[in-house]
Structures are given as C-alpha cells and as structure tokens.
Fold this protein.
Amino acid sequence: MSLDILIEKIVEKQNPTVVGLDPKLDFVPGFIKQKFFFKHGETLKGAAKAIYYFNKKIIDEIADLVPAIKPQSAYYEMYGYEGVKTLYKTIEYAKSKGLYVIVDGKRNDIGATMEAYTNAYLGTTSVNSNVVEAFGADSLTVNGYLGTDGISPLIKACNEYDKSIFVLVKTSNKSSGELQDLIIGDKSVYNTMGDMCEKWGSECMGKYGYSAVGAVVGATYPEQLEEMRKALPHTFFLVPGYGAQGGGAEGVAKAFDAKGLGAIVNSSRAVMCAYQKEGYSEVDFAQAARDEVIRMKEDITSYIPAISL
Amino acid sequence: MSLDILIEKIVEKQNPTVVGLDPKLDFVPGFIKQKFFFKHGETLKGAAKAIYYFNKKIIDEIADLVPAIKPQSAYYEMYGYEGVKTLYKTIEYAKSKGLYVIVDGKRNDIGATMEAYTNAYLGTTSVNSNVVEAFGADSLTVNGYLGTDGISPLIKACNEYDKSIFVLVKTSNKSSGELQDLIIGDKSVYNTMGDMCEKWGSECMGKYGYSAVGAVVGATYPEQLEEMRKALPHTFFLVPGYGAQGGGAEGVAKAFDAKGLGAIVNSSRAVMCAYQKEGYSEVDFAQAARDEVIRMKEDITSYIPAISL
C-alpha cells in the first residue's frame, strides 16, 4: 500500500512533516519574479514559470529532510492552465528527488466522474494505445460528502497503483464545525466521516497497521486529534493548521501513536515565507525554508515518541 | 446577480436545460481523434485538441438552443495540463457564443485557499500590475463541507463580478445518502446544507427571487426535489441525473416553481453521445447533439409551467 511508502520515508528521515507548496505569487521573492516577467511579461505564463523556479529551489533545499510535499492545487489553478502545468512539473520534480507527493485538491464527485479524477491524479489516462500519467501524484486529498461510490474508484487505484488518499474529516478552519460538529445520533458528522474512513480503509490495509485511506484532521482542534487517534486506529492523519493557522506542536503531538507514527503535519506559509523573517534576505529564501523545516521537525519530534516501524 | 443572467437566458431561450460537456475521449468520434493523433501523436496534447474540436462543434450546434453549458473539470484534468487548457478554451468559446458557463469542479477548501479557487474560476488573478481571468467562468459548483469560511470568498466574488455558485446539497449518486440522508436533530444533513445555502444566499439576492447561491439536487431523488423546492424558496437548483442516470422529466419537474423557473436540468452523455443512437453516423455528432437537446427541452418543458419572469 502506498501509505507504507510514506511511512517508510517518514521513518527514514525521522521526520513526520510535509511541506505544503502553496505558492501565491506574493510569496515568491521579487528578484525571481523580475527575472521571469522580463522574459514572459506580467502574464500567467510568467507567474507560472516564476513559481516553478521557486518551488524547485525549495525542493532542492529540503528534499533530504522531509518525506513529502503537498502542493495545494488552488494556488496553481489560480494561474490558469500555465499554473496547472507548473503543478505537473513540480510533482515530477519532487518525485525525481524521492519525495512523496500529496496533491491537495479535495476532489469529489459521483462514481464515473470520480474515476476521471482518480485517473488524473493517481492512475493513468489512456490515449488510444498510449497509457500516460496525467499528473502522477502519490496521494490526493478528497471530500467524502458523496459517500462510498465517490471513494471506490480511488480505493481501486490505491490498490492497483500503490497510492493513497486523505479524506476530509475535521478541517482546520474556524467554521469547520458548522456542519462537521453537528450530531448524528450519538456522534458528530466528523466522527461519522472518520468511521467511513476506517470502513473504506479495510479494503486497502498496509503492513504497518495503517490503510491507504488517511484522514485530514486539523491541528487547530487538538482535543479532537486525540479523540480521533483513538477512534480511528487504522487511519493515518494529515494534519494541517500547524504554525501559521495557530496549531502548536504540543497539540499536534496528540495525532501520533506510540511509535511516533500515525500522522504527518503540514506547514506551508511558514516554510515558503521563512525568508521574510528577520535575519534573512530574499536571496536566502531556500536556506530560510530549510532552517524552518529543521526547526519544525525538532519542534514536533520533541513532543512525540521516537519514530520507528 | 449572476443567476439573474442565467435566468434571463433561460427565459429568452425558453429552455431550462444545460448541456454537460464531459468529454471522455471515448465519446469523441473516431474521425476527429484520427485527425488530431495524426498531427500530435497519441498524446495528452492530441487528446486535448481532439476534445476541444469536438466541444466547439457541439457548442456551435446548440448555442442558439440552450442557455448554458457545464464542463465537468475532471474530464479535462484527466488529460493533464493540456486538458485544462482545453477547459479554458472551451469556456472562452462558449462565452463568445453567449452561453452561461458553469464549471463543475466541486471545489472546496478553507478560506484563504478558497479565495485562490474563487480567483481562478470566478474572479481575477493579479500578476503584478496585470489583472487577468485565469478561467473566466460564470459559475462554479462547490462542496460546503467546510462551512461558511469556505463559501464567503465565493459570495464576495458573486457580488463583485456578477457570478454564481452551486453548492452540493443532495447528489444524484446511489450512495449519496450515506452521509447526506443522516439525521441531525430533526433534519437531514442535506436539509442542513440546504438551509446553509438559503443563509449564504441572503447576502447576494437577485431581482427574480433567487440568490447567487444555487444548490445541486439530483434528479434521481424526485421526492427530495419537491421537498427542497418548498424548503428553499430562494435557492436555484442545478439538477444532474436526468437521462443517463435514470431521472425522468416528470420527476425533474418537481424542482421548478410556478413560473417554470427555479431549476436548470443537466444532460451530458445523452447529448455528447447522441450520434451513437440508431439513425446517425459519427459525422452527424453535432446534429445528433442538437436533436437530443431539442428532445430534452420538449420533454422537460412539457411537464413544467410556462417559463416567464
């Protein structure tokens, strides 16, 4: 199972964190933008090329430290098809550096259409006799609101291509409770979604006790992280909201099991914009990102058990 | 409000239907594929170009009949960034023909990231001093699982740019009930989501009694269509599941109000693949699509009140 691959990379690097590559153009240092705008004008293409350059340099600097990156699709789609091309190239480059790539797309649809999304991100696309990977990611975040037949094509691909998914369970935003915290019978909507993850995961169990169906559970709700870790023993967590959104390492630690596994914590802006802190200048952006990745790793691992299989 | 624009187009064309452009390569006639594979090889680019040609010819043939098209993003993403370029060009072409374009992307995320999706599809993207439309659609389908702060950026764009959204409420697939039909207090999850649509919509009301926040309610559940029409008087419905998925015109009619408004019914495969029916050959694909659009219009309008403002 694909989450086994991620787990092995986490153990190898002794680092349960993932860097979110959500490259708003505002985050890209001015000297990089200048270079690409000079060549391509202030166009979507110029922006997309600047972002790719920025991503690549950050990947170069952090690839030996982190097991994974998580590009957020929205920040590429925002730059049109040129931006989506940068998403593709970023995935390709990160994989060439041995990183596990989680596309944060929160995709969802009914069965037949979900197959198309599955093909796009985790599987293959047939063009007559030619079979190609449209994006070639390792994992995709998805929204389970449509129920099992929106998830089945993904599970099939997890088994067939050794991939994984992360289903939104409890998100990190302020209003996540409006629907997710409401009570159905004796449990919340997010608990119900969590139970569905365990059920879906039973069809694609890995060898380290976790299935290929992970869950997104926000760092901004530590008490729920703790509750969910107990309730969903086979579900690996992707934890957004650390750092910039306010979730601390002590709270985040509740997402982990006794072996220091069971979760991977995301940080995006704090890494990408690390160079904006005192003591750095624009040209240090990649080194600043590396420093922040080390700081985050030390912060989180200081609160969790030693990481081992 | 943007839904007013759609409503006016529905009244003008006396047609409350939308053609879903979900162009799997299998749906594209062989002679078109041959032409583009000859030029570009059996590549994602060749596929994307064939799909654009197919879409364009269908749009040419139906633009005088229907108010809107609904490209399903998954079927473009499946062909990588080249496919996404075809999505962009399809939107652009359909708009040049006066059609209202609903991108079926079911996007969802937390506030800051949802802003990026909003910019991508409904708003504008700034590239330094240059402000451009990355996709330039009129409307986007979205998933409301994350609550209000995932919807707020969209509502702002609806007001600022005269756009609309359709929130998933009750989807047309078989397992939609697993979560959507569960009971929270005295109402279902989908009723709760519907109420949220009414609330969100109160911030962007149009002049014909409907807000810019529509709801996706599947044709495969007619009794729920009827119930929702009464419960959500200001929420316009996008109704998938007619035809191929088994929803009939009589059931679909329950989504409409006394003025023959309040809903737009989607058909995708039945239109795109109409040429596969007896009496047509591949080269008739556009004419066959037109014939099916006329049949669908007559079928549905025969069950609903006369359409008027």
Notes: The radius of gyration of chain A is 19 Å.
